[in-house]
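I'm curious: can you give me some protein's one-letter sequence along with its backbone structure tokens because I've never seen that pairing?
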Amino acid sequence: MDYPISTCLEESPIYQAVIKGKIDDVRSSLAHKVFSWDWADDDEDDYIFRNSLNKAVEIDRSDIVAILLQAHFGDNGYDKRNWKPWYVTEALETAARLGRQEIVRQVLETEQDNIRNISNALDSGVWSRNITILQMLMDAGASPNAITDWGTPLIAATSAGDLNVVKFLIEAGADPNKGVDMKGYCSPLLSAAFEGHQDIFDYLLPFVTDEEEIEVAQEYVSIKNTDNC
């Protein structure tokens, strides 16, 4: 009988070792194992490893994260490439999003060469509202003006809704006039307006130079204010 992959996760030794904090068992589970990245999650070992790694980040166990990232990646019979960068990058983005400052620092210090598109981690980091993490990421090369999964880090920040984070990015050089096409045009001001973040909208408005964008954004704000009445 085939069990759902989620069931396999809960019953896997490595996942159980992670959630119980048993470092020796984590090491034992990694022995002679090879992992290769699969976004579709149709490979059981990969699914279990990724979720174990993310769980270690979630429970803030930097020691276990370090051990997991020493696993054997790639060089197997199916793929000769080294897939470690994808695991490292996901761990960094998860740590940044959850505000796991020590894990962010650790990954930046020990796995710099394996990080792919570090600016996506800056995207993730705005949701933690942790300015120290954002500064660490920019010191390591993340750009507040990079094109990222959320458009730009500033667009992500306006969506997240923390004015202090928005101010930090602006002061760090983020361009408030930089928009992107994401199945329709999006900019920091439009994002703030659409999400109903009036304080961020008011802060960004003096920086924006596109009159048409301002007009559209003000219409969004008007609709939001009407809906909230």
